[in-house]
């Protein structure tokens, strides 16, 4: 106590020995009162000298933290505390340092005791500090020399930790630990406010799991929850510190990506997310496979306010989901009508299917039909089977691709009727073919998951009289999601019927080997994507094809290689061991009448016919664009677009080597060099290659903001043209 007393502020110091001089008795009394108070209240007192070093601290405070007072007294006061490292910048109070520097009053400033200086290791202690500066001189309000602080402190650790936990619950999703809707919305607002002034871009990604509902329904909610947790972990792994991930609820997620607007990088990131989330999960010994769709909108190009950007990303997500799932999309203004579009499509499909039923007697349908694509043996070009591919001829919009309408049918349950119809129709048509020729029919995972499915197959076989060994059902790996037992039962029932099973699109997405062990497949179909790139030397596709064929051989399965279009591809896949090929090099899908006619005339042998070399796709486009040269803007027509170049019609007299800027619309400006010039047609090469838009189209990586475009438009409108602009008409 004596030691402590020495460190007390001078005016509090008193002596208990000897006769008290006048006034000293008073001081002693006050000291006694002070000590009483100090012992009985729950807080402590403290004081500093003018340099800010601790000159007094209540003994109870030292006892509480097991540190002798000598160790603390004399230390700079602010060095004993730190501000909250978990919530930097989120505290409303200014840091202690700030108050001390300004000699300002302290009102319940929340601080944490520095772990290494005070208190037992491993436990945080939080104090609320109050205090006022002590000034010398008579003037009570301001003025006078600063002598130091006098103050009090309270331990608020319990209260503070409870508050933090409450706000954590209010800010984070308890299931996945990701930010919740509330927090991510606030973060987005903060980011937009800051980025508007500093002119930085940002991207909002909206994500939605594909087929999550099936998992929830078949395996139960606890399994669904576990799946969401695992998905959250995978998202965090891909995104890292590039952005903040939130779960909005259900199977919806959102990712904020500051300073990212490069559509090439964004597309790569989205693809990585899709690939990782689509890997199988193990949940309670069940194998679960889901997918994910991604929609993206970019600030400030697709909107400048939060609501606008969220709506844009939502529309992009919607388009991704309905473009076949497991895809990404960037927002573009064309997407605005997509929701309405989808509703109309659903309605039209319902009508088309209704007319199937009414025409069931003869199995003809005015809108829906099946085409048959030959599967050919490579050694002698003999047709060994056909794959049935569905076609929908919309009365006003012409052909709609099955990759568009099959997902609609799956989502609405219409696939059950549609699939049963296709099965019946295909088996009946196959009855008119030679017995050696098989028929393959695609079966959706939704159909397969239905407990009646083996019964439907049995009925069709009975009704048409087709030999079960001639029917091959094409399944995709998505049949393995959901209930493992039900899947096993379906496989057994189908095998018992004697039909053959093929695994379609093999090698895309999932790690497939365990499925091969689990299910009795007779055939693997090597996905077209491997064939597409098998002639490129820097790709592993050819090796993968060889590996798949080798694996199938070892397991006693057949393989069909899909999508062979050119002779050089055929040479590669044959060298890798392919014995069955299905592709445009042999034949596109044909209608039944043509199939029968060919069978009569060509005796089941097809001579391959197609290009010698496979050329990476050049897209035929027909679109008006702006061409800017020497401050003048021309109108021209864009044709033949690829990632690296384009053909443009409508400008005459542009020398080879000229540098131009193409205005491809929506802020997409591309710098090009003219590589060919022939009358009104020029060929150009892009300085920076275009990137995928996720939907089979091409876009520029970056865009110019609307403001920059308006300024540029003003600049180019006045200048004189150097080239002749001619009108090009659309050719047939
Ligand atoms: P899939 O089962 O993998 O069918 C092969 C697809 O590749 C077909 O597209 C076919 O026309 C196309 N193809 C074949 N050879 C070539 C080629 O050399 N080059 C190119 N570029 N493409 C080739 P299609 O007919 O558009 O069908 C797309 C997908 O729609 C099918 O993929 C299948 O998953 C689904 N589908 C089609 N018909 C049905 C059906 O009746 N039921 C179900 N559930 N799905 C179907
Ligand atoms: Mg197929
Ligand atoms: Mg396929």
Task: Describe the overall structure.
By secondary structure, the chain is an alpha+beta fold. The chain folds into 4 domains: about 150 residues, PAS domain (Beta-Lactamase, 2-Layer Sandwich), CATH 3.30.450.20; about 160 residues, Alpha-Beta Plaits (2-Layer Sandwich); about 260 residues, Alpha-Beta Barrel (TIM Barrel), CATH 3.20.20.450; about 100 residues, Thrombin, subunit H, CATH 2.40.10. Helices cover about 35% and strands about 25% of the residues. The protein has 23 helices and 32 strands. Strands 14-15-17-18-19-20-21-22 form an 8-stranded mixed β-barrel. Strand 23 and strand 24 form a beta hairpin. Helix 9 runs antiparallel to helix 10. The protein is elongated, with a radius of gyration of 37 Å. The termini are far apart. Bound molecules: ligand C2E and magnesium ion (2 copies). The site of one magnesium ion has 4 residues, from loops.
List its salient traits.
732 residues; alpha+beta; Beta-Lactamase; TIM Barrel; six-stranded antiparallel β-sheet; 23 helices; binds ligand C2E
What would CATH call the class of the largest domain?
Alpha Beta
The biggest beta sheet is recorded as:
8 strands, mixed, barrel
**Classification by helices and strands:** alpha+beta
Name the helicity range: 25-40%
Domain unit count: 4
- The second-level CATH architecture of the largest domain is Alpha-Beta Barrel
Can you tell me the residue ranges where pLDDT is under 50 for at least 5 consecutive residues? 1-8, 10-17, 86-93
- Biggest β-sheet: strands ordered side by side in the sheet: 14-15-17-18-19-20-21-22
Q: How confident is the prediction overall: mean pLDDT?
A: 85
> So, the CATH homologous superfamily of the largest domain?
EAL domain
Terminal Cα separation, in Å? 104 Å
The ligands bound in this entry are:
ligand C2E, magnesium ion
């Amino acid at each position: 106590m004596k030691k402590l007393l020495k460190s007390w502020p001078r005016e509090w110091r008193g002596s208990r020995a000897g006769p008290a001089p006048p006034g000293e008795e008073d001081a002693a009394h006050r000291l006694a009162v002070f000590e009483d108070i100090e012992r009985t209240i729950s807080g402590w007192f403290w004081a500093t000298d003018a340099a800010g070093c601790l000159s007094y601290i209540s003994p109870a405070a030292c006892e509480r933290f097991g540190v002798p007072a000598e160790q603390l007294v004399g230390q700079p006061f602010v060095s004993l505390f730190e501000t909250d490292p978990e919530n930097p910048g989120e505290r409303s109070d200014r840091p202690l340092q700030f108050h001390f520097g300004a000699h300002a009053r302290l009102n319940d400033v929340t601080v944490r005791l520095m772990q290494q200086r005070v208190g037992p290791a491993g436990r945080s202690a939080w104090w609320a500090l109050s205090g006022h500066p002590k000034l010398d001189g008579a003037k009570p309000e301001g003025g006078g020399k600063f002598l130091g602080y006098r103050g009090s402190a309270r331990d608020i650790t319990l209260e503070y930790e409870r508050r933090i936990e409450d706000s954590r619950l209010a800010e984070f999703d308890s299931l996945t630990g990701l930010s919740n809707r509330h927090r991510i919305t606030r973060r987005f607002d903060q980011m937009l406010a800051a980025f508007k002034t500093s002119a930085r871009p940002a991207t909002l990604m909206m994500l939605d799991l594909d087929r999550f509902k099936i998992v929830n329904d078949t395996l139960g909610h606890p399994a669904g929850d576990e799946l969401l947790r695992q998905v959250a972990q995978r998202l965090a792994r891909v995104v890292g510190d590039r952005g903040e991930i939130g779960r909005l609820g259900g199977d919806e997620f959102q990712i904020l990506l500051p300073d990212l607007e490069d559509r090439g990088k964004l597309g790569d990131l989205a693809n990585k997310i899709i690939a990782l989330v689509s890997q199988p999960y193990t949940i309670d010994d069940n194998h679960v496979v889901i997918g994910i769709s991604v929609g993206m909108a970019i600030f400030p190009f697709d909107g400048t306010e939060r609501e606008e950007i969220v709506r844009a990303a939502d529309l992009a997500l919607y388009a991704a989901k309905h473009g076949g799932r497991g895809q990404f999309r960037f927002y573009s203004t064309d997407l605005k009508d997509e929701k309405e579009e989808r509703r109309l499509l659903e309605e039209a499909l319902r009508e088309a299917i209704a007319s199937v039923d009414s025409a069931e007697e003869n199995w003809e349908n005015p809108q829906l039909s099946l085409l048959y694509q030959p599967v050919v043996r490579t050694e002698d070009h003999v047709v060994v089977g056909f794959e049935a591919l569905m076609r929908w001829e919309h009365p006003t919009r012409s052909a709609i691709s099955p990759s568009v309408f099959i997902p609609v049918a799956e989502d609405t349950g219409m696939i059950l009727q549609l699939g049963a119809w296709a099965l019946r129709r295909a088996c009946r048509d196959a009855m008119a073919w030679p017995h050696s020729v098989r028929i393959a029919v695609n079966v959706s995972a939704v159909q397969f998951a239905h407990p009646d499915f083996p019964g439907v197959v049995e009925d069709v076989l009975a009704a048409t009289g087709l030999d079960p060994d001639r029917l091959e059902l094409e399944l995709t790996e998505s049949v393995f999601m959901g209930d493992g037992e039900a899947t096993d039962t379906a496989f057994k029932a189908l095998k018992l019927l004697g039909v053959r099973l093929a695994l379609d699109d093999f090698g895309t997405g999932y790690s497939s080997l365990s499925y091969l062990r689990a299910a009795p497949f007779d055939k693997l179909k090597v996905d077209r994507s491997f064939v597409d790139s098998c002639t490129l030397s820097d790709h592993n596709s050819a090796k993968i094809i060889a590996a798949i064929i080798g694996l199938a051989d070892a397991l006693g399965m057949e393989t069909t290689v899909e999508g062979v279009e050119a002779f050089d591809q055929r040479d590669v896949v044959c060298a890798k061991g392919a014995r069955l090929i299905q592709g445009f090099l042999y034949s596109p899908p044909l209608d039944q009448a043509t199939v029968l006619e060919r069978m009569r005339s060509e005796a089941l042998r097809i001579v391959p016919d197609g290009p010698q070399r496979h050329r990476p796709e050049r897209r035929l486009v027909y679109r008006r664009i702006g061409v800017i040269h020497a401050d003048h803007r021309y109108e021209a027509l864009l044709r033949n677009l690829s990632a690296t170049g384009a053909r443009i019609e409508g400008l005459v007299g542009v020398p080879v080597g000229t540098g131009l800027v193409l205005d491809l619309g929506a802020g997409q400006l591309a710098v090009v060099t003219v590589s060919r010039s022939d009358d009104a047609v020029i060929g150009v090469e892009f300085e920076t290659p275009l990137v995928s838009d996720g939907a089979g189209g091409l876009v520029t990586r970056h865009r110019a903001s609307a403001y920059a475009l308006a300024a540029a438009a003003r600049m180019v409108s006045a200048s004189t043209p150097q080239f002749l602009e001619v009108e090009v008409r659309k050719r047939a």
